[in-house]
Fold each of these.
Amino acid sequence: MDMMSHPNNARHFPALAPGPPRMFAPQMSTAVTKPKKNSTACLACKAAKRKAKRTKANTRYPQQCSGPDAPCKACRAANTLCHFDPSRDLRRKVAVKRTIHELTKYKDLLISLLGTVESADKIEVDKIWDMIQRKVTFEELSLAVGGPETKFGDPSELSAASKLAIAEYGDQPLEVSRSEAGRSSDARRTSDAGSTASSPDEVQPMNLQRPTVSPYARITLESLCDIPLFEVPARPWTEVTDDDYLVSHLVSLYFTWDHPCSQFLDQRTFLTHMKQKGGSKSEFCTPILVNSLLSLASTHSDSPDVLSSPDNAFSRGQRFFDEAQRLWQAEEEISLPNIQALLLMCCVFKFQGRAVQSWAMLGQAAQLAQEMRLFDAPISQDRPLSEMERVRTITAWGIFNLSSQMSVEQRRIGSLAFPMSDITLCGNDDFDWTPYPRSNKITYHKKPARLPEVRQGLVEVTKMMSDVQKLISERQRGTSFDELWTKAQGPYDRLTDWLQRWPTVSEMQTDPVPQILLLRIKCLQAIVSLFEELNDPNQPQFAQQARYYQTKSAYEMAQCFRVHRQAYGLKYIPSEMADATQRGLQVLAHQIQDSDESRQAFMELCRFGMAFSYTLKQTANVVHEIRNSAVQLQLPAEAIAILEDKGYES
């Protein structure tokens, strides 16, 4: 047996006596510990060019920053505010991430700027060029070209950070990850995977190995509750996505919020042909039409899948729109669905704030419609019309309605004559209507969409708007104001008579349907446009009365908007309401000091303006102009708070 392993034979060593105390002479020592450097100085010390250095007591260097935590000794001695920002230390990896994020914002601004110069009309390009020459801020330039509201860092500081980052990381591969919201980029060296943060201030990087999953596959309450109203296939109608759910979602959004208010096509016929299996050849449905429809419907969707640029909210539906344009350029034949597609693309251009392209697209649709003789009387006089004649009639009146509306908005002279087909011959075929998506209020009940009634109402309002066009023409020809005022009384009387026959605001409060509200809003907007020709400061005897009629109409428009907000909120609004929102804001912004009623109406329109400004570039431009003129217009604090996005939904 090994004697060493037995417990009783364990060797006991005697305790050592304490030795003499060691004497240290710090002043004679050669092994002095090097003072630890702190890599982060506070902002005040950076500004004063005080280096960040830490000694044991730091009493010999009162002019130097003692480092975190605030307040440092230098700031305490100088009695200045002390704040540390680790991301401004260019030697940290977190600074590299910050630099990449800043550079991404500048890159996105450049792409948006080049895209605007390439595709915008001359007026828009001149406006952008003027802003550049005036040396506006990058924030203002970003908003003008459709970018998001964001803050840009100091260019000189960013340049220095970029050079240091390239010197330190330029020869090493970087992994870039985009946050789930798609708003920022992170970068780190591949050798750092799984390592801890280099400082307490640095955030631990996220796992970069994430599978690409459709956002609609995420298990959320909204996705579980969301069942599209109409199930349609993605293929063969679009090459942008093969996600049937996404396409069904967008088609359902379009037929809930946009189609009832414009009706360029027949809902039942379109859906029947889109659901048919087989090729993409159909006399009522084509890939151009489907992609145009999906592009317009994308303005209502929160899905990241509809964004072509994750950092640009105005890029919703752009990939569908690009696909529609590509198909249209390759198209060699005229067809009814393709004309309908041009009308939808016209609306997309319009909401993007590209007025010249929108008008040109409308002109193409009108020319092709005339070549197909859509405005002629139907061949058969059957009641109701055949399916083809019914869809032709709906489309013809859709073109005429849109042409009249845009002629007044852009102060152009429309040349289209009334279609010869009576819109009432299209029958009384209707759908049930319910808000979609329905997950926010499951208590909504189905109600009639009242599509035939809305079709008839659109035609009646459009015919009266042709009187407004005539007044614009008279004004451009130099007709005297006395004569203009006399000629305006007839259209005004017809518009007010129509309002008395249509459901009132109080009647619609008990059973609100957006498209019924919209028709009243459109009639009121026509009154505002009618008296715009007589609202000339150089003619005070007419201008005061014209402003009265405009303001009165804008008040009632705001009441209609309030009914919609109370019933359906601000997340889903028919796009056709955007023009009235913009016009009402422009009218009431100059009358806001008149009464409390003016302020309340203006703030209601501000809420809708803010809601639209997140999806429609056209409205964002108007809101931006009003926000910049807040001091000059003497807007109340409540309105400014709404325009600055502080609780606009309240």
Note: The first strand starts at residue 174 and ends at 178.
Amino acid sequence: MKIAIEGCAHGELERIYETIESIEKDGGTKIDLLLCCGDFQSTRNLEDLQTMAVPKKYLDMCSFYKYYSGELVAPVLTIFIGGNHEASNYLQELPYGGWVAPNIYYLGYAGVVNVNGVRIAGISGIFKGHDFLRGHHEYPPYTESTCRSVYHVRQLEVFRLKQLSGRVDIFLSHDWPTGIYEYGDKHKLLRKKPFFAADMESGKLGSQPLEELLKAIQPTYWFAAHLHCKFAALVPHNQVHKRSDDGSSSSSSSSEDEDEEKETKDVPTLPLKAIRITKFLALDKCLPRRAFLQVLEIPSDPIKENPSLEYDAEWLAILHSTNHLISVKENYYYLPGKKAGELTERFNFTPTEQELDAVTNKFQKLQVPENFERTVPPFDPAEQSNYKHMVVSQPKVHLNPQNNTFCTALGIDDPLCLVLLANGKDLPEVGSAISQNELNDSTEVEPIVEDIGEPLVTPTKRKLNLSLPAPKSTSADATDKNVINLPEEEEPEAEIITPTKTSKVDDPPCVPASPNLKKLKRRNQEIYQAEED
């Protein structure tokens, strides 16, 4: 399977697809898949544009809206992760991934999929130490602070990815792993980017959690972007790869290696075992005469007409078993770990055979359904050509039907719903926010919806039913401000326990809740030192 890798897309989809078409014509070949490493900028309209964390003079609609409206269709299956320049409100509707346009798939906060037998994992956003231990507390309309923190990597996604076992062929990130420059031509990199030297010396160039994931997952390929330059490296994993009791990965120490060397000094030499290597490649942004695209060929299953996009059963099982660890608090919280938590609390969520069977029995068809649906009107260049001089407000919150279907089928919670409820907001209706006439005018492509079936039983204290009406406050009977009381008259079996956002002067008051609901304890194996943003 021939795969094209794109660095920072920055909304230039037409230019990227034209480049791929040119490569296909010149080489007499066909590109089967496009992977984008962030800064995708999936802005559907002017309201989406207001959620991007860039100076106003750099706000540009670019060309994604044409693929959203149906004016254009992506000529190749496209999979992308988020960066730090995104339509954050749209991506937040799809925390577990989904179609942002026909043939264009977002991996979510973190995700794992299979394309014709090639296992692809990825994580969205960039690392900032002061937000890493927080929950996903942001929701539209964003403040000046949450407009940036919404795309910062959180510990839960890293923790979940560490539970993966087996081979990972490709890993996508926006940030670089810390220290990756030591495995490539560091001097050539510094000639291109001399100002990287200070960050290298201070250890701030790259992401520490990504370095841990690199050692834990050891993928065959790792692709990144963000720093707007091309850089290649070969990372050998020549130490013994072990899974520790706390669910994380570790390597044997140098002292252990020395002891083994002494013990085997007189033993006849045997052939060396092949060393596992990760091929790292970072690419530039999409501009003329810049190295923003790379094509490679990876062994895969036979392709009939179009590549087959499937869910990863192990990843689904991990999402299901760690659902109770979701937090929507603004303050720090801790995930399970042997050193910090109770020994009776589960801290290794690598799926058991029973958990895998439960998922595979439920998702008998792991193929991702083509259930894209437009929920807002797309940008109209004829009527809004002078948009850079227009005053536009941020969008309201929308719940995406794709995510509703996925969460219901798997029996997990939508973090966006949780944070709305935790802050006393009404849940908007799930579905289209535009009229049928607007749909007919904007596109001819009809969404395809696949019935996945009944949800799994979630073994957690939190259940979310998106068909519930808006929750109401019952301050007269409430004594605990850390949980939410849902109305009992509709569906009493659907109750939810959610942490709330830390109260501030400008924040809306928290909704009081019933005192008979228990809070969830949080544990974590490591604490990262906060850094300045």
Note: Residues 418 and 498 are 6 Å apart (CA to CA).
Amino acid sequence: MLENWSLRFFAGLLVLFQSSLCVTNADSRPNFVLMMVDDLGIGDIGCYGNETIRTPNIDRLAADGVKLTQHLAAAPLCTPSRTAFMTGRYALRAGLGSTGRVQVILFLAGSGGLPPNETTFAKLLQKQGYTTGIVGKWHLGVNCESRNDHCHHPNNHGFNFFYGLPFTLFEDCKPGAGKGVLVDVQEKLRQMSALLALGFLTLVVVRAAGLLRISWTLVVFLAILSLLSFIVWFLPFELLRTWNCILMRNGEVVEQPMKLETLNTRLVNEAEQFMERHRDRPFLLFLSLALVHTPLFVSEGFAGKSKNGLYGDNVEEADWMVGRMVETIERLGLSEKTLMYFTSDHGGHIEYGPNGGWNGIYRGGKAMGGWEGGIRVPGIFRWPGRLTPGQVVAEPTSLMDVFPTVVKLAGGALPEDRILDGHDLMPLLEAKTNRSEHEFMFHYCGIYLNAVRWHPPHSDSIFKVHFFTPNFSPAGAIGCYDTKVCMCHGDHVTHHSPPLVFDLSRDASESHPLSADTEARLTEVLERVERAVTEHRRTLTPVEKQLTWANILWKPWLQPCCGTFPFCSCEETNHTSAGAQ
């Protein structure tokens, strides 16, 4: 009897010991705080060369961690870049590459977005017991078939908690800033509506005066046509601020339209409270800033503080937000248990001049295909006790690399049912290797392969091959000033035969195309890149295109609404996180 009791006692101790090991292992897993600014140029930050805009918090992040100098977005625009970041795969694998004019989601009530069958890093971390949250911008869709199906919503893509902008900032979100969605289409519809209304009034006057015998049937038909024309123009476009510029907490609309004056403070507070709520368990927080996308807005206390006008004010406020995240992690005693990451979704929007950012020495910018200025972004990792401070990594890396990096650190397994284009960054960050796993990187403009980067083995050269380049306007300029967004197809681009080739290790600004006289390996470069393109294309499978006109146009039955549609209106008065996960 005593012997049985002893066996049960020691068996119980063994179970307790094993349980304590499991808890210790779970608690040893890092937290993740991922911070992404919108449209920030790599040249806008002090640690990347800016000498006038003050970014002490981001600079400190770099000094305390590892700075990547050849960190690349997989696309030069918001929606495809963020798709690649979330999934670790090129955006066209998820159907979010553009075939024509529409290159991003334009209406929150469209049916396109990140497909439910895509696997985000947040989904995989949830399976590992992490609590996951996104605060800020999403811009990857909301609904598919009904107002509340939320098939593209963050909560359906692995995030336990969402607070922020399911869409993005457009000019329409700031009163008096103008229009930013299909402006020419809006104008044509407005003109058509006005002409039909004028025709209807003319017929009524002529019929009433007895000048012509006109059938009332014709008058009624034209009246109906005029009304329909007005609705088609007015409802989707004139009310865009109400439809697109909203705030959601999880699946509920809490402000419509959103007020920009306090937006940044609210985002910071929500991010801070999320970390405080989950300080005792592993968590992932993605702080996706609304800054510094146009229209520029600034909170009280930051206006007029920068030497670079309103844009500089925006960057310095973004730096303050990053500082708040670092301060919170340190205050909670989580520094050595937290991997912090800072980046931008793509380069600065240089067509906006002083309000559009600076991409340093790099050519081009946002929405300019594969030019370096649109895809080379800041990349900073900080993890005290694990990463050696002050390191600089000049190897090619990608926003897509975050996916495998955080999944592996969380103890998860990478999906085997799909191709991943990102690679684990930890060997580079910990200086266990000095070579990136990216021998080739493919740069897309919409669904079109625009350029290919080749880092030959046993070589310091990094060749960049451009198959076509966007046509700038006017000729000789550095951007597509007429449209503010360069197109990827037809007469909007110039195809190069042979392709333009640059060696970024010697010419990072892509100013001097190589020739047979200046590069002995030119033929080898072109042949090797051609083989790589063929191999890459074999990995692509057809998927439903999410950015077709049918998927992006406004559908009233999909419109998120606070109140009764179409009378959508509410203001967030209680800024606490009551009921948040």
Note: The longest helix spans residues 2-28.
